[in-house]
Design goal:
This protein is α+β, with helices and mostly antiparallel strands. It has two domains: 168 residues; 203 residues, SGNH hydrolase (Rossmann fold), CATH 3.40.50. 24% of the residues lie in helices and 31% in strands. The strands form five sheets. Strands 2, 6, 7, 8, 9, 11, 12 and 13 form an eight-stranded antiparallel beta sheet that branches. The chain starts with 9 loop residues before the first helix and ends with a helix. Pfam families: Lipase_GDSL_2 (PF13472). InterPro entries: SGNH_hydro (IPR013830), SGNH_hydro_sf (IPR036514).
Length: 409
């Protein structure tokens, strides 16, 4: 028997639907999606630009009920201002794939103009925030192309953030949904951006804290930066794990940042506050941090102190403790005997499950050359793109291990 046969009025039907959804655990989740910010020390800067058009692939696992975007041009790593940019428009539409490959192009007649007038993308560390997009025709569901354009008065380099994009020499080209050629595929994106969306879902959400291993630097198998390739932000291993397990993931991760940086209150607006920690019911906290602390010369004691302070800060901002999963540090090209010793001792400490952790996710067996002491500090080449970051194969290994390690609520 269908709803039309029940004899119930519409208000009663809506009430019954709501009660059924509550019984199924359906609720509203607010999720943060995108790279964490711009920093030239890791991602570099683009060539000098006066006019730029960008397209990025946006992939969300559940239909949105409303969403908005934030844009900035700011050296987040050094907290240094950059030029303000003039936004020239924002458009979204379905993404065309050819032979399974991403193209950066719109499905014909699917594009919707979200912002058609000029707007200011600030360079002082604040964000231009769009209004909430609430119209059903504007919602995200699956894989979309997001197009944005900007100009600036002086020809100045723009710092990159992590993540694949297609770039055009003019904003009008990227924003013209009929244009299907001439965009340059890039491994990173000359702009700071993120999406905040809400979805009505039965999925639970998990918070990831990390560095470039979580944020999404990856590529072909290799030993240098020449093999690094960009991926959409929805294809990072935490989000791939979430897709597989029927969950949602918000990822506060920044390439090149140390655990100690998360304790710098000046960076709270970017690393903590926009993740709505006090109001989001995150079911667990998954942490990968420490390799950059070791690389910059921190001792084991200093690293442990920074790590503990960062995690306790997360729980304080959440207003509660949630299940904690710790991820060990991978072998890394360039570490000497002292740094490798710190890494191994730190990993051994993580296996003790400090801070009340419920699990330790240990990918080192897959990423090290062998189990002997001599091989524990050497890379399994096929798992790396540049001796530091996981290759595509390495990302898949991390996803699989997460699926057997992270307990679900």
């Amino acid at each position: 028997m269908g709803w039309n046969d029940t004899g119930l009025d519409l208000a009663t039907r809506d009430f019954v639907n709501l009660e059924l959804n509550l019984l199924r655990g359906v609720h509203t989740e607010r999720v943060i999606f995108g790279p964490n910010g711009q920093w030239p020390a890791v991602n570099g800067s683009s060539a000098a630009l006066t006019n730029c058009g960008l397209r990025m692939v946006i992939d969300v696992p559940e239909p949105t009920t409303r969403w908005r975007m934030g844009f900035q041009n700011f050296n987040q790593g050094n907290l240094v201002a950059a030029n303000a940019l003039t936004g020239k428009g924002i458009k979204v539409g379905r993404h065309v794939r050819t032979g399974g490959n991403r193209t950066g192009n719109f499905v014909a007649s699917s594009a919707v103009s979200l912002v058609s007038s000029d707007f200011t993308i600030p360079g002082d560390g604040s964000y231009y925030l769009t209004s909430w997009f609430t119209d059903p025709t504007e919602q995200l569901d699956g894989e979309h192309i997001l197009a944005v354009g900007y100009t600036q008065e002086s020809s100045t380099a723009v710092i990159n953030s992590v993540g694949e994009c297609w770039q055009w020499a003019t904003s009008t080209s990227a924003l013209d949904d009929t244009v299907t050629t001439s965009g340059t595929l890039r491994a990173n994106t000359p702009l700071g951006w993120y999406i905040e969306y809400e979805t009505f879902t039965a999925r639970n959400q998990y918070l990831f804290l990390g560095d470039s291993i979580m944020e999404g630097i990856t590529g072909l198998v290799g030993t240098s930066t020449s093999t690094i390739r960009g991926i959409p932000m929805g294809r990072t291993w935490p989000r791939r794990w979430a897709d597989q397990m029927g969950c949602l993931a918000s990822v506060s991760a920044m390439a090149g940042f140390q655990a100690s940086v998360w304790n710098n209150a000046l960076l709270d607006p970017y690393l903590w506050d926009r993740y709505n920690l006090a109001t989001t019911d995150y079911k667990a906290l998954i942490v990968h941090h420490g390799t950059n602390d070791i690389n910059t010369g921190d001792s084991l004691a200093t690293l442990k102190a920074s790590y503990v302070n960062m995690i306790e800060k997360a729980f304080t901002k959440m207003g509660k403790r949630v299940p904690l999963i710790l991820v060990t540090l991978l072998p890394r090209t360039g570490f000497d005997a002292t740094k490798n010793g710190i890494r191994r001792n730190f990993n051994a400490w993580l296996h003790e499950l400090p801070l009340g952790a419920v699990a330790c996710m240990d990918p080192t067996l897959d990423f090290q050359l062998g189990t002997s002491l001599a091989n524990q500090d050497s890379n399994a080449v096929s798992m790396y793109t540049d001796g530091i970051h996981p290759s595509y194969q390495g990302l898949e290994s991390l996803r699989k291990l997460a699926a057997t390690t992270i307990p679900l609520a």
